[in-house]
Design a protein that fits this description.
Elements: H1 5-18, E1 26-31, H2 33-42, H3 51-65, E2 73-76, E3 81-86, H4 91-110, H5 112-121, H6 125-143, H7 145-157, H8 187-194, H9 197-202, H10 220-227, H11 233-254, H12 256-273, H13 279-293, H14 308-323, H15 325-334, H16 337-344, H17 347-353, E4 358-360, E5 366-368, H18 373-381, E6 392-397, E7 403-407, H19 418-432, E8 436-441, E9 447-452
Parallel strand pairs: 1-3, 7-8
Antiparallel strand pairs: 2-3, 4-5, 6-7, 8-9
Helix pairs in contact: 1-4, 2-3, 4-12, 4-13, 5-11, 6-7, 6-11, 7-11, 7-19, 10-11, 12-13, 12-14, 14-15, 16-18
Amino acid sequence: MTEDWKDYTQRIEELAGRSGLKFHPVEFEAVPDTFMMEIAVYGLPVRMPHWSFGVRYIYQLIQRHMGNSRLFEVVFPGNPGHAYLAASNGLAENILVTAHVLGHADFSRNNLMFRRCQGQVSEHIVEHAANHARQIQQAIEQYGMQRVEAVLDAALALEQHIDVDQSLRRERYPEYAPEAKALADDEFRKRFASLDPTAASTGLEIKKRAPVPPHPERDLLWFVANYAPEMESWERDIFLAVREESFYFYPVFATQIMNEGWASYWHARLLREADFVPQQAYLDAIKCHSDVVRPVAADQQVALHINPYHLGFSMWEKIVEKEGMDAARNIMEQDDDFGFIRNHLTRELADELGLFRFSARNDGHVKVLEHDLTALHEAVLGPKYNFGAPSVSATHVRTDGTLELTHDNSIDGRGLDLERSRRVLDYVQRVWRRPIVLSTVNQAGSTLELTAP
């Protein structure tokens, strides 16, 4: 790869600014392909060590060797943003990637979900994650790899179980239940309260302890960190570090179709307007663009999975064409993928893109189902509910410390992988240090309980 692409970076940034994009500065760096793979797997340039990332690395390596994936860039939103480009990219690919990254930078600076989560976590997540990694390395040196790994097993098994509707730095539950206040004109209630013999004899106000949790709690990382009976402070810090990084990753997950589509729309538009790009580089970049946003792999006629680049790009093109750029920017700022798909994936566009629901049997037989638009929306969005994890809440802590968890499959219709669930319960029980009971349903709809130990 030549270094010529860097000569175009500033000019592309200036063109993006004139075109209406608003973004924090982005630091671009070309890195070896192996490092690119590590960044993509870990999610950050430097992150806490754990064996599960090695498993993900092997999976990505196999996918790449099979020709199913290639990494051109990895972007980390922030102020400044960080963009890592593969050293194997050619000039045209890096010109396209630079424009693509600026589309991402505009999205992450202006989308409300990104702004809210980054405002709580930090716009310097790369540095924060490196600090977390150092803290965990210090814990390994002090407490040993085996103990630290057991805590990471539990925390990373729950990394999707957060509640972004709550504050990152939320307070513990009130210790006492609020008093039931009698109505001012309710004479009977006031007279009954005055007859409380305990209160009358001691003159003290009786307070009732609030249940834990006072309501179903779906932020399991926060709950375990704050209410595990014997959790040590360094263990709690690991749980909260994983939770903080999950807050950072959530908007990336929840806006993937919008975000990749927005970046793809803008890299295509900026390329068309960049008259300073050599003709051959422009043609090669457009070829790369068509490969990125195509709906199917090169040797296939039909795709049974959504390409978020293709779907998002097509939707933004249609929105800009019909409603104008001001309306498109307003949608970009306000929505996540749920609102974007439900409000803007129309029947006309779905037909134009050839989108359909299907069922597949174990023998490979595929059957196309009805073309109901609402059902199609939910099929696209189904994997996105609850950060892609089953909806499991902490519902009660018994007097002996037993933790009761409840799986609610009515929200997304997603069942539990029982083998995986048992393994996760085992991980969490090691840090909860009391029994754990998870209530769910089997295939027949009957109540099923999983326990650990």
